[in-house]
C-alpha cells in the first residue's frame, strides 16, 4: 500500500499542479507568528461561480500571534475562530484572541502518533513501529466517521454559517485536521478536487523548514532510514490521506454535501445555506 503515497515533490511536478501551487502561494497571509496561514481568493467552482474572497482562512494555532497578526486577520474579515485541537492541546497553548471574535472549540484528532509528541516519546515509538502510514489514513477517516468528531465538525460548520464575517480555523500545525475541514468545505462549495489537493499539499511547502528540522533531530538521535521514512509520513501531507477521508464519505454518503446534509444533520436546506455563505452571488 505504501506505493500509493505520493511524495510532495512528485505532486508539484505536474504542470497543472505547478499553476495551483503559485495560486496558493499568492493567497498566503504573511503573519509573523502564525504558521501556514492562507486564505482563498478568486477560487472558481466547477459550475463557474467563485468562492467569496477571504470567507475561509486556514492556519496553525494562534498561541504566539502578534498584535499585527491578529489585526491582519481582523482586516480580512475574520469574526469567528474554530479551534480543531483537543482540549489538552488548547489548554497547553491557548489562542490569543481579539475582542468580538466568536471562539468555537471543535476538538478533533487526526492521529494518535504525531510529530508534535515529545521527541523521546516519538523516537521510542518509531523504533518499534512501522504503522505511521496506517495511523494517518485511519486518523483522517476517523475525523469524519467518529460520532464525537462529527459533533465537532457540526460545531465548526455552525460557526461558518452563523458568524457575520469570515471563519478562521486551525489545529496545531494547520496541516491535518485543518486540511480535512478545508477539503470538506471546498468540496461542498463545488471546488475541483485538483485545487483541493493543491491547497492541502501546500502545507508541505509552508512547513518545509519544520519538516527538515524534525528530520535533522531524528538523524541527530541516530534515527535510521526506516525511521526517517516514518517521520516523513507523520510530518508531511499526502493525497492518500485525503483519499481515505473522501473514500469513507463517498461510500457512506455519496459526496461531501451528502455527508453534511445527512451525516451531520444539516439537511438539504443547510447545504444550500452553507453554499450561499461560501459562494459569491
Automatic annotation (TrEMBL):
InterPro entries reported in the protein's UniProt record: Prot-tyrosine_phosphatase-like, Tyr/Ser_Pase_IphP-type, Tyr_Pase_AS
The name this protein goes by in its record: Tyrosine-protein phosphatase
Annotated Gene3D superfamilies: Protein tyrosine phosphatase superfamily
Pfam family, one: Y_phosphatase3
Highest taxon of the lineage: Bacteria
Amino acid at each position: 500500500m505504501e506505493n500509493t503515497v505520493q511524495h510532495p515533490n512528485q505532486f508539484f511536478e505536474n504542470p497543472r499542479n505547478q499553476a495551483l501551487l503559485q495560486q496558493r502561494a499568492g493567497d498566503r497571509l504573511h503573519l509573523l507568528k502564525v504558521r501556514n496561514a492562507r486564505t482563498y481568493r478568486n477560487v472558481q467552482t466547477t459550475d463557474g461561480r467563485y468562492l467569496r474572497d477571504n470567507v475561509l482562512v486556514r492556519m496553525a494555532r494562534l498561541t504566539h500571534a502578534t498584535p499585527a497578526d491578529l489585526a491582519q486577520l481582523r482586516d480580512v474579515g475574520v469574526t469567528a475562530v474554530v479551534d480543531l485541537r483537543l482540549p489538552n492541546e488548547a489548554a497547553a497553548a491557548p489562542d490569543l484572541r481579539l475582542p468580538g471574535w466568536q471562539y468555537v472549540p471543535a476538538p478533533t484528532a487526526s492521529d494518535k502518533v504525531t510529530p508534535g509528541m515529545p521527541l523521546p516519546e516519538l523516537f521510542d515509538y518509531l523504533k518499534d513501529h512501522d504503522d505511521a502510514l496506517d495511523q494517518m489514513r485511519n486518523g483522517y477517516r476517523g475525523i469524519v466517521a467518529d460520532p464525537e468528531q462529527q459533533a465537532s465538525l457540526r460545531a465548526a460548520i455552525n460557526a461558518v454559517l452563523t458568524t457575520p464575517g469570515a471563519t478562521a480555523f486551525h489545529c496545531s500545525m494547520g496541516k491535518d485536521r485543518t486540511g480535512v475541514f478545508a477539503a470538506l468545505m471546498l468540496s461542498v462549495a463545488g471546488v475541483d478536487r485538483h485545487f483541493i489537493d493543491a491547497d492541502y499539499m501546500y502545507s508541505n511547502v509552508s512547513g518545509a523548514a519544520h519538516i527538515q528540522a524534525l528530520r535533522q533531530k531524528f538523524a541527530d538521535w541516530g534515527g535510521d532510514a526506516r525511521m526517517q521514512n516514518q517521520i516523513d509520513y507523520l510530518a508531511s501531507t499526502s493525497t492518500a490521506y485525503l483519499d481515505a477521508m473522501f473514500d469513507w464519505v463517498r461510500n457512506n454518503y455519496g459526496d461531501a454535501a451528502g455527508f453534511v446534509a445527512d451525516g451531520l444533520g444539516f439537511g438539504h436546506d443547510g447545504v444550500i445555506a452553507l453554499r450561499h455563505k461560501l459562494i459569491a452571488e
